[in-house]
Design a protein that fits this description.
5-stranded mixed sheet; mainly beta; 1072 residues; single chain
């Protein structure tokens, strides 16, 4: 193995993760833009899931920003003069504790197909973009900046050349950024801006200060006026965030929600020069730091919308408001609203639960259920078949659902269901019985749930000492003991241990935090508007990690930088934080992963972005924390550290999640390579490996859940070395266990249309054989299936189980095609060494994937049909014939390319949900073998007639240029012969079709259709065939013999005479 192996993912294109959603809870939508002249074109920006586009009025959506460095969208704007011009500002402008940062502003000149970074990378968070309605090259950027530290890249930027250069036209100080920015719809040189002083710390938030203010320019930003209480009527004293809006139909009417000592709605009737307070009630809004947005109906200056936790509307110019959306109808916590300027009844709302659309001014709402924007804090799995995924989400509770299904179509939204409320965090299935488990929400609220009944028992630890107040993080520590299924751990400032699944708790540690009381004033957090929700709780434990290789060893990490370890089950603890050289004291210990291989070894995932330090800290110890070594740096990865996992099978294989993507190492962290094969640059919050199936399950903060099926190819690269593998002619990979299963129809609507989300399903009905290959320069040997007259196909894949991008209804999973070019031959043997199946595949450089649908080789003489015109290569396997089903058991496979070969193992098991009888499977196989022989005989006979009918057609075509009595007589005879041959062909069947009865020419069911139906009937069950099946086969064999005799008799009586008649016309397109 060479030192330092950057992975060449171009040779791993067959490894792409599946996006499984779900989208039923969606996620935070922060920005909306619509092409007013084509209102079916919608752009939706999300807090951490990228930018999405719909060209169907919100029915179907596509992500259009995934190839860029950051997926947090704070603002999106489209030029109404030239809708091909679209701008996106990265870094959301809602500075809660879980906000995500960005990396500059981007421009598209082709309606979102491609993007170019136009600078301003250090702004970190962009909240507003305004494009001059008369000049698309003139653009204003409202940079709110990062709430985590002081920096000068805040305020208003302007370009007049499409972003090639920028002028910083409004700047106050390093603490103050744009809270809102609006343009007078009648005068593009007149702009109102709220400059907002705010600061977030890990333990506190402050909104407002002397640097905040309301600014106006009337000359396109050359000069600005800061408004005051004396001159303009705005509140005195420190100000905070504001929400601003002009009335389109009457631009002299302007509204301003102003955070101050007393929050209130102000109104101006002279274009924003003079203001009057018109409402200071609770109905105008709450939580200004998170949402303080106001919008005006473009045709009615007195109809005003204030969106915050709820959506309120005023019909009297803001004097009074009423809630227009019942709380249980659409998700709360709203951030963006689009009102169509020509039809104000048409509105689009963005909130923490996604997006909703109304076309009747809010009377009825449609939830957009196909935007998978879930923000997962934690991810976990169980060991069911198929296994389930669990996770907790920002503002959307805890959910569970299948990683794949044995149903048709994709993974539908309603396959996922909630098992806990609130802001969801860690969730663990009970290893004794995954019907039960533990689900956590904010501030240490944890319950033991029952998935079947929906009940939940509160098991939150309490303090036995009334003088000791327990401190729980927003996202508290929770862990399952690896040695005792009844023992779990939970974290406050202490480690709590339960040996009875949470019914009672014992504290087994001292306070493992700094216990800095200056960082425990969360009840005063918020600044001008107190906002004490537990999001800033500090000096608490974030992680508890028991060792799986050494009983009694536990690691604990805190939000204020402490790491402790105990080697005696909690009797004594050692603080090893001082040994973390190069890591700033007080950093956030996000995860600790104890080694599955070595005692005393662990990896700590640490970040410090909450104090304006965006470097990744990934530290490894091999001596219980006495010394630590950095195993990643900002030169290796982009984004601060969030998650890590080491493969439990191959120690050199590691995965590292950052704020901006997923990284992989195959050399034990010497080098890291970004994984971009179908995976976006999304916040990668948590990682877990489902060990039975070797799947990497990824919890993202913005794009819900991804599953990378079968990481064995990466294990092979790590174990053998990338160069050794990729430069070998062929390297076989032992296949994952595959299951012969019966599949059901999808639950829910039979034909759901385009407006629903379906996660990409794993293919079923086939075993996947994988191998690395070096593509030969010249065609290699191998190739055709045993006894086949044409190249053997890959196996049929999924048959409707597989999934495409949105679930792939009826799709075909990855990578099989019509063999062409250099070929690999794949031979599958049972344990006795008997050849069972031969497949062939075109060779891709690197990783190859071929599917075997559990069938034997077809009977000798089987004619493989030609593909119908226009059939894509990936569907070839639907039209190729295999043999009878193989039996469950262990097999080996051999991959041969030229004169080089390698072998692997594969195991086929029966559906674990049911019992089966091997004798029944053998009887089923044997009868299907007989059916296969009959099918081959039918195809052979049918093909001969078809070929000869084509010859008759050639005669008829040639006769079009002939004249005379002999030609006329031959034409009449040819038409009669063709008719008689067609009657024979119809009775037999074409050999490629299936007809249940009836048809344009005959109501007789062809023999081929009868036999095909019998094959499907027998194959549709794993039971032994019944007496009726055997009788049908006997009847069909007799019918075939009768047809064969009839065909033979017809040829004896007619064909030679017809050929002689053709020769008399002095041409012979048939040939004698």
């Amino acid at each position: 193995m060479s030192f330092g192996q950057k992975i060449d993912f171009s040779k791993l294109e067959a490894m792409k993760p599946r996006s499984i959603g779900p989208a039923n809870m969606s996620g935070r939508v922060t920005a909306i833009a619509v092409v007013n002249s084509s209102p079916e074109i919608i752009y939706a920006g999300s807090a951490s899931g990228g930018l999405w586009k719909s060209e169907s009025g919100g029915i179907a959506w596509e992500p259009i920003f995934d190839g860029n460095l950051a997926l947090s969208i704070g603002a999106v704007a489209v030029s109404q003069k030239n809708p091909n011009i679209v701008w996106a500002g990265t870094g959301e402008g809602n500075p809660r504790n879980s906000l995500t940062g960005g990396y500059g502003v981007y421009r598209s000149l082709d309606a979102g197909k491609t993007w170019k970074l136009m600078g301003l990378e250090k702004t970190r968070n962009v909240h507003r973009i305004i494009i001059d309605p008369n000049d698309p090259n003139t653009v204003y950027i409202g940079a709110i900046g990062s709430p985590w530290g002081d920096h000068k890249e805040r305020g208003v930027y302007k370009t007049t050349n499409g972003g090639e250069t920028w002028d910083h036209i409004l700047y106050v100080d390093e603490k103050t950024g744009v809270g809102d920015m609006v343009m007078d719809p009648s005068n593009p040189n007149k702009i109102l801006v709220n400059m907002w002083q705010h600061r977030r710390e890990p333990w506190f938030f402050t909104s407002g200060g002397p640097s905040s203010g309301l600014y106006m320019t009337v000359d396109g930003g050359k000069n600005w006026t800061k408004q005051s209480a004396k001159d303009n009527g705005i509140p005195e004293g420190d100000l905070g965030r504001m929400g601003l809006a002009f009335a389109t139909n009457n631009p002299n009417r302007v509204y301003a929600l102003i955070e101050a000592k007393e929050n209130a709605l102000y109104r101006s009737d002279d274009g924003g020069f003079k203001w009057e307070m018109i409402n200071n009630g609770n109905d105008i809004g709450n939580r200004p730091f998170y949402y303080f947005e106001i919008y005006v109906d473009p045709k009615n200056e007195n109809r005003v919308y204030s969106i915050f936790t709820n959506v309120h509307r005023s019909e009297d110019g803001g004097k009074s408001f009423e809630n227009i959306i019942p709380r249980n109808l659409i998700h709360v916590d709203n951030h963006a609203l689009y009102i169509n300027p020509d039809d104000p009844k048409y509105m689009i709302l963005g909130n923490d639960g996604g997006m909703a659309i109304t076309r009747d001014m809010g009377k009825k709402w449609q939830f957009v259920e196909n935007l998978p924007l879930g923000q997962f804090y934690h991810i976990n799995v169980d060991n069911e078949m198929p296994y389930n995924v669990y996770g907790g989400l920002q503002d959307n509770g805890t959910y569970t659902g299948p990683a794949y299904t044995w149903k048709s179509d994709g993974i539908r939204n309603d396959y996922f269901f909630t098992i806990g409320g609130g802001d969801g965090f860690d969730v663990m299935a009970d290893p004794d019985d995954s019907r039960y488990g533990y689900s956590q929400s904010q501030q240490g609220n944890v319950g033991r749930y029952d998935k079947l009944t929906g009940s939940s028992k509160r098991i939150k630890p309490t303090s036995d000492d009334p003088k000791v107040k327990l401190r729980f993080n927003w996202n508290s520590a929770m862990a399952q003991d690896p040695f005792d299924n009844s023992t779990i751990y939970f974290g406050s400032q202490f480690v709590h241990k339960s040996t009875n699944k949470g019914d009672s708790w014992t504290i087994i540690s001292p306070d493992l935090t700094t216990n800095d009381t200056t960082k425990q004033n969360q009840d005063k957090s918020g600044g001008l508007t107190i906002d004490a929700t537990g999001a800033e709780n500090h000096t608490t434990l974030l992680v508890i990690e028991p060792s799986a290789v050494e009983k009694g060893v536990l690691w604990a990490g805190s939000d204020d930088g402490y790491i402790h370890v105990t080697r005696d089950g909690g009797a004594t603890w050692t603080n090893v934080s001082k040994n973390l050289k190069g890591v700033p004291a007080g950093s956030w210990v996000n995860q600790i992963k104890a080694s599955r291989y070595n005692k005393g070894e662990a990896v700590a995932v640490i970040n410090n972005y909450r104090r304006f330090d965006f470097k990744p800290y990934l530290m490894r110890t091999k001596d219980y924390g006495k010394t630590w070594t950095a195993i990643a740096s900002e030169n290796d990865v982009f984004g601060y550290a969030l998650s890590f996992i080491q493969d439990p099978v191959e120690p050199k294989l590691m995965f590292f999640g950052t704020e901006h993507g997923l990284y992989v190492s195959i050399d034990e962290a010497k080098t890291w390579t970004k994984f971009e094969n179908g995976y976006p640059s999304v916040s990668t919050m948590d990682l877990v490996i489902q060990e039975r199936e070797s799947d990497l399950v990824i919890g993202t903060f913005g794009r819900a859940i991804y599953v990378l099926d079968d990481i064995k190819p990466l294990r092979v690269l790590a174990a053998r070395g990338q160069k050794s593998v990729t430069e070998s002619a062929v390297t076989a990979i032992d296949a994952s266990t595959s299951y012969m299963v019966s599949t059901r129809a999808a639950s829910g609507p039979a034909n759901p249309g385009n407006a629903t989300f379906e996660g990409e399903n794993r293919q079923s009905g086939a075993a996947v054989i994988k191998f690395f290959a070096k593509k030969p320069e010249t065609p290699a040997g191998g190739g055709r299936g045993a006894g086949a007259a044409a190249p053997q196909p890959q196996a049929r894949q999924g048959g409707g189980q597989g999934g495409g991008g949105r679930g792939g209804r009826g799709g075909v999973g990855g990578g099989t095609n019509i063999p062409r070019g250099p070929q690999a031959k794949i031979e599958i043997f049972d344990l006795s060494g008997t050849l069972v199946r031969t497949l062939s595949a075109s060779i891709n450089e690197g990783l190859n994937s071929v599917s075997w649908r559990y069938d034997e080789n077809p009977p000798e003489g089987t004619i493989q049909p030609d593909l119908p015109p226009g059939v894509p290569a990936e569907f070839a396997s639907f039209f190729r014939r295999g043999g009878a089903p193989a039996l469950p058991g262990a097999y080996t496979f051999k991959v041969t390319i030229g004169d080089q070969s390698d072998e692997g193992k594969i195991e086929i098991q029966m559906d674990p949900r049911d019992t089966y009888n091997m004798n029944s499977l053998i009887a089923r196989r044997d009868l299907l073998r007989e059916v296969g022989v009959l099918t081959t005989d039918i195809s052979t006979l049918s093909s001969k007639i078809t070929k000869d009918m084509e010859s008759v057609d050639k005669v008829l075509e040639a006769l079009k240029t002939k004249r005379g009595p002999e030609a006329n007589a031959l034409k009449t005879k040819s038409e009669a012969v063709k008719k008689e041959m067609k009657e024979l062909s119809d009775a037999i069947g074409s050999g490629g079709g299936f007809r249940f009865g009836g048809g344009s020419d005959s109501d007789v069911v062809p023999l081929n259709s009868k036999v095909t139906g019998l094959s499907r009937t027998i194959s549709g069950s794993f039971d032994a065939p019944g007496a009726a099946d055997r009788k049908d086969l006997g009847d069909f064999n007799n019918e075939f013999k009768s047809l064969q005799s009839k065909v033979d008799a017809w040829y004896a009586a007619n064909w030679d005479a017809y050929l002689a008649a053709v020769k008399k016309v002095d041409f012979s397109p048939i040939g004698g």
